[in-house]
Specification:
Blueprint: H1 8-13, E1 14-16, E2 22-25, H2 38-45, E3 47-50, H3 52-62
Antiparallel strand pairs: 1-2, 2-3
């Protein structure tokens, strides 16, 4: 059976840490920023950790 190919779209959007956690960037930080509060934009700056079944699926697509 052939090797499973890496999903290139997922590779660009998600990253796996050394401990195996899946990290992704928040959406909504590219344009229309005048209407968003300073606090909201600051919170969108941070990376987020994905957990549960979704993280397992992402890892499978990245392997």
């Amino acid at each position: 059976m052939p090797k499973m190919k890496t999903n290139k779209g997922m590779k660009k959007r998600f990253k796996i840490t050394k401990k195996g956690k899946v990290i992704f960037r928040s959406a909504g930080k590219s344009h229309l920023l005048n209407s968003k509060s300073r606090k909201r934009k600051r919170r969108l700056r941070a990376d987020h950790v994905l957990g549960g079944k979704m993280a397992k699926n992402i890892k499978k697509l990245l392997s």
